[in-house]
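FIELD: query
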Amino acid sequence: MHEYTSTARVWGLTRPGFPEEVSRARRWTRDILSGSPWAEDAELIVSELSANAILHTASGQDSGSFHLALAVSAQAIALSVTDDGGAGTAPKIERQDQEAEHGRGLGMVSVIAHRVVVHESDDGHTVTAELFTDPGTGGHPC
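FIELD: result
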């Protein structure tokens, strides 16, 4: 294989920060991963990350938006959602008790995904969830 040839495919989508865009993000993910055994897990992850961006950051305010990136290779599916920032703190994975009404989303994503990474910058936050499609890659089975 040539060193500059990649077998990974990458898609990107930017959506306005309206609640109805979460369903569009899910459909976009489902369409790209049609036929994949990981499509439902990926759809749920994108739904949660998109909703978090809209609810907890400037993405859900006037003229806000969020960006989705989806990378697919033989070894993994990586789903990233980047928000517009404006939250006092970066997203973090928390384990909540059964009575908690909020704060369970990233915990749920961390159970479904094999790896979750949060990157903070001056312009916002990017949460990336990875699903390892190749059993030799490691991680836990979903």
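FIELD: remark
Residues 39-56 form the longest helix (18 residues).
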